[in-house]
Amino acid sequence: MARHGATTSASGRRSGTIEVEPGKTVGIPSHPDPVMQTRGVNVYYADKHAVKDVTLDIGRNEVIAMIGPSGCGKSTFIRCLNRMNDTIEIARVEGEVTLEGENVYDKRMDVVQLRARVGMVFQKPNPFPKSIYENVAYGPKIHGLARDKTELDEIVHTSLEKAGLLNEVKDRMDQPGTGLSGGQQQRLCIARAIAVSPEVILMDEPCSALDPIATARIEDLMDELRQNYTIAIVTHSMQQAARVSQRTAYFHLGVLVEVDETDKIFTNPSHKLTEDYITGRFG
Amino acid sequence: MSDHTVRAYDAEVDQLRLLVLRMGGLVCDQVTQARNALRERNDELAQLVIRREADVNRMDTDGEEMAFQIIARRQPLASDLRTVLSLMKSLTDLERCGDEAKKIAKTARKLIVDEVDRVPEFGRAVDRMSELAVRILKGVLEALDGFDAEKAIRMANEDRHINWEYKQALRLIHEYLGKDPSRIEHAAEVVLVLKALERVGDHAKNIAKYVVFLVQGRDVRHVKAKALASELERAKPAGPES
Fold it and tell me: Among A3, A8, A266, whose Cβ lies nearest the Cβ of B78?
């Protein structure tokens, strides 16, 4: 826009304090083939209202990126999707979250089962202090997904292969997962999530502790994984969101301000706050 | 619009924008001076225009280098990305306008050296077209400076007047040659000048469309200027009822 410092943006919108209204998301929050749906989701940490009235569909086989400044509620929001917020005592979730139409917060929902169906990869790779093999075999074992050792081996191999790690570790499966490089550990965590055949994989800044090459490998992997899974990723890197996702959601002060095709968000967003954030004018 | 958090980014984009505007100013002057050289049979002026073409080219390469640096270092997005791309494309069109001015100056030199007699009707047609071309180019540059998509569309729509003048001038030349075929060589040179001015109008129209892309984020390169102008007219609020 270029008339930097001028009072009018390129789109002719006046600058100034922009009000964000919960529940008034701009763009396309719906999806024709949703795997998960949230309706009017609110999250509170004690008195703090962290996520405000968020309605969003997560589409099948899409990568959806969540962006926004620190503290905007994007991580809190994705943690609602597999009830990771249950582990925080002061957290309270209101509204509806469904997975293939099933209410995720239903009393009858088995949370362990839910977290297998909606897996999670964290910012810092967190392999178990076990061997590479055991890291991946753990989930299928506790969920009873393999009838015998041959089937378990098959699952472990396939998962490592899908995570693009098999060739690097096939000769040292019995060595500790924690001995791998950061990027390899993160791919091991992805293999561990895949091993239990999830429908959705949540990734909370999965590359922020990785170097550019390891990051590129994860991004490349996400594109492959999309064929079989749905991915919701929280990232602070605009370029990463632009590269890996088909839709991007912008959060601000707990409000889902805008969600739209990634191509549109990064070339011509509709909301001024989105524009200001992605062009580095925010704050 | 607030500034970027990284202030150097603002400075870099502003520097590129100012270079494009400066280059635009120089190109307008090049067209005007080339026309003056032709009208006044001023060989020195024609040579000046030809020499200054190197300045236009240098501004083009400098501007592209600046744009490359911004893209490589800042990875612009959204309106910033549209700004850098629009400015970069404007550089190319302005550089071609510079080429057209040089063509006119070269033709002027040829007519001066060959001591070709003037045909006043031809001169008047060239005058009308060059005035229009420079006026439109200046208007488009103002629209670029002010991020004014409406003005850009109005200016793009003005290009049809240049096209009309061009057709009229060609008809005039045909008629003249019918009466006096001995002036065929002179007429051919004049047609080159007229064509160059018509191209300046086209380049100005292109830049006007980049302004629309910059401001509104929509690609209108292949939309007729007339259709854009009608759309603008329809979007205007109705005036007070009498």
Answer: A266
Alpha helix segments (H runs only) across B146-224: 149-179, 184-216
Report which of A198, A182, A178 is spatially closest to residue A128, judged by C-alpha positions.
A178
All structural domains of chain B: 7-233 (1.20.58.220)
Phi, psi of A144 (to 5 degrees): 60, 40
Q: Which of B3, B9, B80 sits opposite A5 (nearest CB)?
A: B3
Touching B: A residues 241-270, CB under 8 Å: 242, 265-269
Map residue A69 onto helix, strand or coil: coil
Domain containing residue A115: CATH number: 3.40.50.300
A168 in B contact zone (CB under 8 Å): no
Contact in structure between B196 and B216 (CB atoms under 8 Å): no
Nearest CA in chain B to A269: B78
Out of A3, A280, A283, the one facing B1 most closely (by C-beta) is A3
| pTM beyond 0.90, yes or no | no
Q: Which residue of B has its CA nearest to A240?
A: B75
CB neighbours of residue A19 within 10 Å = 8
Phi, psi of B63 (to 5 degrees): -65, -40
CB contact under 8 A, A267 and B17: no
Interface membership of A239 toward B (CB under 8 Å): yes
Would you call B75 and A239 a contact, using CB atoms and an 8 Å cutoff?
Answer: yes
B172-231 pLDDT tens trace: 999 999 998 988 888 999 999 999 999 999 999 999 999 999 999 999 999 999 999 998
Q: Is A160 inside a domain boundary?
A: no
Give dist(CA B99, CA B97) in Å, integer: 5
